[in-house]
């Protein structure tokens, strides 16, 4: 029991470390995709820190490519990536580009053009099934990109081919944020869980900032059913230092907010 | 080469793909609710585990193809040319072209070969696919080339788009004809000719018929078959163009961005100043109708080639008239 509590504590610290690294990366230019890392920190922490994505075996698809900042941060924290690389995030010629590309490390597929990742993840899952390989495929999705019809083409295909999709897990960072504002104000997706359920998926909806809820949700796979975990999050990850008026999609991080946020996160890690 | 009317065969692509797939377990076949129409019903029936029907969802199909290819498969994606180019262009660009994956897109019903009107006539597919980095664009002229092209594009790592006539496919070439993805072919004529006629795909029968008539009227021709529009075999084309008075291109495609444009780019880039005339669909959407009606009406006929060459050379008087080759059941004649 104590071990379990320690593991949860470690995951929370990992999430805080992801947020701190992401803040420092965005501070290099003073603007960037910080909201995405703040909202998805626990998701990345659990996927990579709790043994779900097994590097070299399982496949990881990052559909919204601008979330790659969160992947860099968790990769560096877990020693999968040289932490020195974080210092050149988004700079000219850097390995770690602000939007994922074919050069991006730690990922089997990353899409800059949104809504395409789930289809690729289905391709990976079909290939593993054809080869009889015990590889899982994790597809990280965001809620905004579900306005693209391709997501629903893919969802429909996966449930129709459900007997081959037992090793497919989709995780949605449902942070209600897109470029023009809250998803609910642009073109609403709700009821999201019911949509996925009606498309034939096994659906779990959890508090995406609660590592204790995310882990068991991701573990509830079923042999003949694709699983989607809808992780309800807040765009700034409940960070008190960020004013509510800040741009969730592409923040302009002024020096005062940056200092306050770093102090808040360092306190959480102390 | 054989003479028109040409014998026809059915499903040369579907048969070639199945034969190759039996030898190569890494080949998988994807479709979008057009299985019989893309000749892949025989693949589906013989190798059902490796046949995947995506339904009417081309964007998702291209994405799935990308995932399968990243995992090591050679993926053949089959649908009509309009649907696998226009309808999912961003997916083709980002999910398979940018990573240069082993995906072979096969688009049926090129140009005005479909009676179905603008929604089904792929008049701009070559332009769209040619614009994408990493893409090879293939347009076989007959069943002999179709069979060889299947193996050739499977053998070459990376991406390819192949546009294929649907249904009855003519047999123009002899069995010893060889398709090479790096080579255009001089089909007739010597090194020095009045006209260098460069054609591809369904325009080859008309080009050969036009050449025959023109030769009989004192005009010498070099006919060049270009089964691979990208990468273009510029060396062969430039060598022929340097020794001619007039270059004519003929394509079953809009004149913008296809074979004619590719040849124009090659000529201009090498400062070859031969006069150029491009035969193709004149920047318009067409209409529904038979192959004969459409090829005559939109300037893709043998007679049209004759007239363009005749006028382009500055010959006086009316152009010679192309003989009508009767299209009998079970045979294929150029329009």
Brief digest:
The complex is a heterodimer of chains A (270) and B (335). By secondary structure, chain A is α/β, with parallel strands linked by helices.
Question: What does it look like?
Answer:
The complex is a heterodimer of chains A (270) and B (335). Chain A is α/β, with parallel strands linked by helices. Chain A is 43% helix and 13% strand. Chain A has helices spanning 2-29, 34-49, 68-77, 117-131, 149-160, 183-186, 192-198, 211-218, 255-269; strands spanning 31-32, 59-62, 109-110, 137-142, 168-174, 202-207, 227-232, 251-252. In chain A, the strands form 2 sheets. Chain A has a 6-stranded parallel beta sheet with strand order 3-2-4-5-7-6, with helices on both faces. In chain A, strands 1-8 form a two-stranded antiparallel ribbon. In chain A, α1 (2-29) packs antiparallel against α2. The two termini of chain A are 23 Å apart. By secondary structure, chain B is an alpha/beta fold. Chain B has 12 helices and 15 strands. Chain B has helices at 12-23, 41-46, 58-70, 81-85, 89-97, 125-130, 143-155, 204-216, 234-241, 259-269, 291-297, 302-312, and strands at 6-9, 27-31, 51-53, 74-80, 103-108, 135-138, 159-164, 169-171, 185-188, 193-199, 221-225, 228-230, 244-254, 276-281, 331-332. A 7-stranded mixed beta sheet of chain B has the order 3-2-4-5-7-6-12, sandwiched between helices. In chain B, α10 links the parallel β13 and β14. In chain B, α1 runs parallel beside α7 (143-155), α3 (58-70) runs parallel beside α5 (89-97) and α8 (204-216) crosses α12. The longest helix of chain B has 13 residues, at 58-70. Chain B is globular, with a radius of gyration of 19 Å.
